[in-house]
Write a structure and sequence with these properties.
This protein is 32% helix and 25% strand. It has 330 residues and is an alpha+beta fold. The protein has 2 domains: 156 residues, PurM-like, N-terminal domain (60s Ribosomal Protein L30, Chain: A, 2-Layer Sandwich); 155 residues, Alpha-Beta Complex (Phosphoribosyl-aminoimidazole Synthetase, Chain A, domain 2), CATH 3.90.650.
Amino acid sequence: MSNTYKSAGVDKEEGYKTVDKIKKAVGETHNSNVLNHLGSFGAFYEIGGYKNPVLVSGTDGVGTKLKVALDSKKYDSIGVDCFAMCANDILCHGAKPLFFLDYLACGKLDSEIAAEIVLGMVAACKDNNCALIGGETAEMPGMYKPGDYDVAGFCVGIVEKDQIIDGSKIKPGDKIIALPSSGFHSNGFSLVRKVFPDFNEEFEGKPLYETLLVPTRLYYKDIHKVIEEVQVAGIAHITGGGLYENIPRIIGDGLCATIDASTIKIPSIMLELEKRGGVAREEMFGTFNMGVGMIVVVDPEHAEKVLHLLDDAYEIGEITEGSEKIDLKF
């Protein structure tokens, strides 16, 4: 018998099935700016209506949260995570997401699983007025075991040059406002899995994996509701490294984000991890978002309006003078 690609472990037909399962749904994310469709070598997106446009791009994956999804056989939410991790980053600069591309790698392709993952991305794209215009599915036996998948994405957004938010306007006295997270989002799952090895155990009346797999919150509508009404000095997406690593990324020299940790509404699952794993509070805040998915920094005169615009937002601190960039007071 002669060798074939299929005998080497790559089933092209399963790839075709995946495309068939997602093609219609992906097309529903397209708008008049998308000039071609799935199947081309490159995706075309026409830009119009901007005076001095700047493209803002971000790329990310979902880390080992994917392991929880695969072991629990729940695949749809992980696609939302992949999109959110990319799109929330570019929101920090005031950008509106334009289009998204995905990369899906596996050992042996299952079109049902692949389609569920991508359809999660489709749902997230629709929620953010963003087009899913392309992607790549790579079946790589020998690199990945059968049943293993990896997911990554790439998002491009746009903002007028004179409206870029980069933290350069942050000043002493500005207020720091927290937008709650929906849970762990997609960070710290190597520690999560170490402390919670059984994803099927019961937590608050349901299987633990349901809590762990709540998808990363999408902040597009919230952030743009605010920046359309208020001049925002800085925005930080709280991902890996928690508040300690992400807030200093937008704080200039000589300034410090002084935060009262006691005001932060920590999710019960994180408190349970802290207790069960014997994890120090400082380590928790340096690993997880601790219930704060994003922060916005605004002049004090705008703080009340932001809180009014966002029902679940709340103030956690202010900008002071100092050299540490962040002072988390427990």
